[in-house]
């Protein structure tokens, strides 16, 4: 119930007045239908099937008298005419209301979609480190669709409530005693059925979890399909998938069982009640045939409303966990927001570093758990402006972590990142980020043309500038070989290119942005020696123009670096020029060098 109230509040906040307009529409539709119900009275009188004169003083007599002075030849077409007008009016408003319902539903959905997406985009890197991306994608697709269904159900629910209230009003007018009787049992049954709504909600929670697992499984398996196929891991994957599908099937079957069980209760109660009802009407209240007919009519119309309300509440109960998971995602991402309310990513200026980026006594660990170890410990380094700094060390030494801290993606637990003597804070974070071009170990390319992949960082780039960047990254030659050149489509994550071609293309993109800081994290690891040499020469030309930070395992690629920082187990163990470090015997750097010479 708490969830439903919260959902109502959110929907009301978003839609405002339109929700009331919708309610008025629903009331009008119900009124048309209710008035239509009364037409049965003069119709019965006209046909003479039942005698209405005997119900002296009742509502029935009052209505039948309204038509009694009209001759039969006019009366019948008149009643039928009114009926057609009412039905037309009702259908007209019903159409309007359906359109309005769809508008409310779609606009609420769009609002939630946009709000969540923007909130996610503005979250810091730490948020994404702790969150499964497949869960995010599941919430943004499957769960959002369930929220859409909930909105529709909710609007139907309000319609149902409005309709029921009007029907109750009409029923009261016709017979107070009988209506109280139906109402009393209806409310008792709804009260007794609360446990069905609770159970539906818990099954809905399970649906969310299963859907997350399903989504994650599909994405993981098809991302890793090459590994699965080449290691013949198909069977265990199929077994896992079958098992999950079975659980999903069971979950839905359980929901259907639950819904049908509560409906069964209503049907049995309905049959018993109507029997008692008719018996009481005839034996105790001495109801006349016309009145009896109307009472049965009221019962037949009112009773399904109660079971309808119950059924909608159950379905909503099973859907609301989706709304919950969406709101949780919104709240978590909002709590991790990395920019201020009035700042936009594009409105900030670029930062031009004049002197250095400094790490001053930096400590960092991925877990907030006090007992976990630090990925970086007491780091003091300086990255001089417009020079090339290389960061080296064994795998897991903390190289990428250091780069992430320098880019402001992660924040130190202790110590500071200082840019030209100004500490890195929320204020200068975006200007810093805007001045960086970063090429990661696993560069990302979009499933579109080469041109679009390049111009997304600089939409106004001319063909000349694009080719210049391609020449820089030693990509021009292979791009020219494609018959469609820059318009060649490169497939999912650039699957139609080789690993080295992908890296070179991402490098071209980084250069096209004309950054003042270029960060390369193992960016040339997939290149052959010839192409790597070309890129080294190109980087050499950038020295003095931009600050370059390179992480490299292949030490031959950093021979020209102005400074080398050697990390080991999260600590800086050496720093200085390449040749100077190479001369330091029994050091980590000479170890790394020796190992590579042995391998080569
Ligand atoms: N997202 C993460 N959550 C928890 N621990 C992490 C995470 N990323 C890295 N680590 C840990 O932090 C340490 C440093 O990792 P980092 O990726 O910085 O090393 P690296 O020197 O760049 O290694 P490589 O050369 O293999 O890329 C490692 O012990 C690693 O296990």
Largest sheet: 6 strands, mixed
CATH fold name of the domain at 2-335, please?
ABC transporter transmembrane region fold
Shape: elongated
Residue runs with pLDDT of under 50 for 5 or more positions: none
Mean pLDDT: 84
Provide the CATH architecture of the domain at 2-335.
Up-down Bundle
How widely separated are the two ends?
69 Å
Beta-strand residue fraction: 5-15%
Work out the helix count.
21
Strand order of the largest sheet: 6-7-8-3-9-10
> What does the radius of gyration come to?
36 Å
Number of strands: 10
The name of the CATH superfamily of the domain at 2-335 reads ABC transporter type 1, transmembrane domain
Structure characterization notes:
It is a multi-pass membrane protein. GO terms for molecular function: ATP binding. This is ABC transporter ATP-binding protein. It is found in: Cell membrane. Keywords: ATP-binding, Membrane, Nucleotide-binding, Transmembrane, Transmembrane helix. The chain is α/β, with parallel strands linked by helices and about 600 residues long. The chain has a domain at about 1-335: ABC transporter transmembrane region fold. The chain contains 21 helices and 10 strands. The protein has helices at about 1-15, 15-40, 40-45, 60-70, 70-120, 125-130, 135-175, 175-190, 195-225, 225-230, 235-285, 290-335, 400-405, 425-435, 450-455, 465-470, 475-480, 500-510, 530-540, 580-585, 590-600, and strands spanning about 355-365, 375-385, 390-395, 415-420, 420-425, 435-440, 515-520, 545-550, 565-570, 570-575. Strands 6-7-8-3-9-10 form a 6-stranded mixed beta sheet, with helices on both faces. The radius of gyration is 36 Å and the shape is elongated. The chain starts with a helix and ends with a helix. The relative contact order is 0.08.
